[in-house]
Design goal:
The protein is an alpha/beta fold. 32% of the residues lie in helices and 18% in strands.
Length: 229
């Protein structure tokens, strides 16, 4: 099963509720929230109030990616606001195991996010608390960046670890990719092991603002590419 998760970072914030409704109607599975604090990354975006406002508008999974430091203070706020999945960068937490436990205690699925140059070793001793691993295929902080090709090798390495864990434990951990995902590379990314795809500008940048169905074609094209894997 493949999941497409448009990132609202690239949406029209003046029409955010409408934008979310339109991408879900077009076939998106999740809604991805890029939360930036201007400390861990050089940008400032959205907080729990936006999540709370969007939650009544959709039954889709809300996937919150925390690019913040420290992490723990915001976890309960986003869980209360309606998040279903919360991921964070291990470098931004003083106690990775504790933060993962906090997320799960709040009723959300928990995950770690790895920047392009961050080693995968952070996951080795917390696999039992991981529901998802997110690999950044760009350096975090801004939308619209190009996919870093070396991420494909990192995806394969991550998939190998997750498959070995699933074989030993019987528990499957999702593998998500974020950054520069487009119709022309999504199949290669899937072949490398990803099952969940964050796409911001590729989806929200499609078509004209006046066209309510402008997302249908790009999401359908991504599905068509994934069907070839």
């Amino acid at each position: 099963m493949y999941r497409i998760a448009p990132s609202i970072l690239s949406a029209n914030f003046a029409k955010l509720g409408e934008e979310v409704g339109n991408v879900i109607s077009a076939g998106a599975d999740w809604i991805h929230f890029d939360v930036m604090d201007n400390h861990y990354v050089p940008n400032l975006t959205i907080g729990p109030m936006v999540c709370e406002a969007i939650r009544p508008l959709t039954q889709a999974t809300i996937d919150v990616h925390l690019m913040v430091r420290p992490v723990d203070r915001l976890v309960p706020d986003f869980a209360k606001a309606g998040a279903n999945v919360i991921t964070f960068h291990p470098e931004a937490s003083d106690h990775v195991d504790r933060t993962l436990g906090l997320i799960r205690d709040q009723g959300c699925k928990a995950g770690l996010v790895f920047n392009p140059a961050t080693p995968l070793d952070y996951m080795d001793y917390v696999m039992d608390k991981l529901d998802i691993v997110l690999l950044m295929s760009v350096n975090p902080g801004f939308g619209g960046q190009k996919f870093i090709p070396a991420t494909l090798d990192k995806l394969r390495a991550t998939k190998g670890r997750l498959d070995a864990y699933e074989k030993a434990s019987g528990r499957k951990i999702m593998l998500e990719i974020d950054g520069g995902v487009k119709t022309d590379n999504i199949a290669d990314i899937a072949r490398a092991g990803a099952d969940t795809f964050v796409a911001g500008s590729a989806v929200f940048g499609a078509g004209k603002d006046s066209d309510r169905n402008r997302y249908d074609s790009v999401i359908a094209a991504m599905r068509a590419e994934l069907s070839k894997v």
